[in-house]
Amino acid sequence: MKKYHKKIYNVSTFKSKEIKETVEKRYNILIVLILIVALLLMGSLFIVQVLKHGFYLNRVDQLSQSIVLSTSTPRGRIYDRNGKVIVDNEAVKVIYYKKPQGVTQIEEIALAYKVASLLDLEYDLSEKNLKRFWVKINSDLANNKITKEEWKQYDERKLTLSDIEELKLERITKDELNKLSSLDRMAAYVYYLMNLGYSYDEKVIKKDNVTDKEFALIAENANVLNGFDVRLDWKRVYPYGNTFGAILGDVSSSEMGIPYELKDYYLNLGYNLNDRVGISYLELQYESVLKGSKTVYRVLKDGTYEVIDPGKRGNDIVLTIDIELQKEIEKILEEEVVKAKREVNTKYYDHSFAIISDPNTGEILAMAGKQVVYKNGKYEVYDYTPGIITTSVTAGSIVKGASHTVGYMTGALKMGERRSDECIKIASTPAKCSWTAIGTIDDVQALMYSSNVYQFKTAINVGKGVYRYNQPLEIDTEAFDIYRKTFNEYGLGVLTGIDLPNESLGYMGTSLQAGHLLDFSIGQYDTYTPIQLVQYINTIASGGMRLKPYLLKAIYSPTKDGLTDVLYMNEPTILNKVNINDEYMERIHKGFEAVMSEAGTGTPYVDIKYKAAGKTGTSESFLDSDGDGIVDKETISNTFGAYAPYDNPRVSFVVVSPDVYYKEGYSTTRSLVNRRISYRISQKYFEIYK
Q1: Of the listed 397, 403, 434, 678, which one is catalytic?
Q2: Residue 55 and residue 93 in one domain
Q3: Which among 236, 363, 293 is positioned nearest to 558, based on CA atoms?
Q4: Same domain, 513 and 629
Q5: Domain span holding position 198
Q6: Can you give the CATH number for the domain in which 152 is found?
Q7: Measured distance CA(148)–CA(617) in Å, rounded
Q8: Is the pLDDT of residue 665 over 60?
Q9: Is 357 a catalytic residue?
Q10: Please, are residues 227 and 191 in contact by the beta-carbon 8 Å criterion?
Q11: Furthest-apart CA atoms within the chain: distance in Å
């Protein structure tokens, strides 16, 4: 038994020695590691404090001055095609306050009184805010308005601090407020502006109508008016007033910054929330071009600013628009929409559009839309130009050039083919006829006299149908795709690519009934925007080249000498070529030329001496007349498109007037607004361009 215990004791002793040696080894390794780390730290400190002492002192000094402030610089100017300034900038004097660190309420109130004595401000403060200021400058009197019981309830947390403050405000009498002097009231207003919004924001105290004297007084006393200073801001000015204003677009104010609805868009581009940005149409479309580079400052230790980057005004853009022509077109539209509204049967009419362009390039020379509203006993006219790209209309017969193309290219229509213009009657549907009995005509005359029946027969052929009077009509529904494909090639039913945001497509019908194919062929089914009709007319004028319409002609970098550094010159963009043989396109040209001849339907639209070619359109439209969500009224819409001269096109015109009269009055009174507008704007164009 003793031997057994002795053996166990010897094993334990052996293991203890082994553990002790292991711990000692690990301890020695740890000591060595600590010494190495200590040596490294000492070496690093030696490098920082001795070898690179000067470098790091300089770096610390730089970092202490690296807070930068940046301000918005003026945007680029906008010129018309002839170099006339249509959007410019104007300097605006601004007096502002930026809360310094550590400033107290008492100090801010004293500053408010000083500034109020220096400025002539238009007082605009609510009674409640005036009471709040009264509480701040009469704290003892305000506290005495709270009873001991109420203070006790506050200590017991039965009343909050907000409750106490509200009780103070409620108990301020009118007599107490009336004792406030005009300076007190003005100081209250300044104090309110100083504390409006976030504390770290720059607060504008006065911006509009700052006099030179006020500007100088604040600037000279900025060292004692802690936090107050002056700067120059800018605003957009328009030498031609509201002309083309809607399409030029708007810029956000310095107070607004980035509008909420555009926040994500601009923040993703690296903007700050308080940046001034383009918020609509051309100002939005060309924001990246028009915006200037910011002036950047470094705040030095003594509180002064050092300019790091002086910034630069934004680049200037030149538009394709002729502002003098634009002004005249808008004037004509304003006069004509009012005149049309005064005619009978125009209850549902309220706007018209007119566009003039260069069919060889796609440049828009002028574009305008005007809406007329009877209000307060008189007719008032509003700008509706954006509707050119956002609203659509049932176009009518103006599209028959594209319909002819479908017939020619599918073999459903032969050049020179003669057909009898008699009504088409499909079972269980009303008869489909032309606007008048035309007789037997060929393909050119079908355009000249705007025959619906001629197009119906082509559509039936495209749809591989067999027509029998008052019998059901079956067609191959692929015909809808065939028509739409060709119409798309002309720019109808597709985005045109114009350099404006929010362009719309129009409406595409979904029914595949045979009768609707016939309607489609005469422009009575799908709807198109006015800008699509412009692209369509230009495509015919150019022989089948679909060009992108555009408003930007060039971009210039501003210099002291004016527009000298060209950054970009826009060139015509061909989007596609219509799939049509030259001889067929020439046939369509002859038809459009015949439309504008003495015997054609378009004679009254452009003076015959200008040798125009074009096409009229009259369509049945439908609308909800009482806003109950039910389409209940049938109206007539007018469209017109032309180019001149027909043998060498240099200009195109498109005029659209939706819902010009309601159908009940069709046989008695027809509005001639489209004729008058077309005639007058074409006359004005040729008068200006000789």
Answers
A1: 397
A2: no
A3: 293
A4: yes
A5: 87-238
A6: 1.10.10.1230
A7: 85
A8: no
A9: no
A10: no
A11: 142
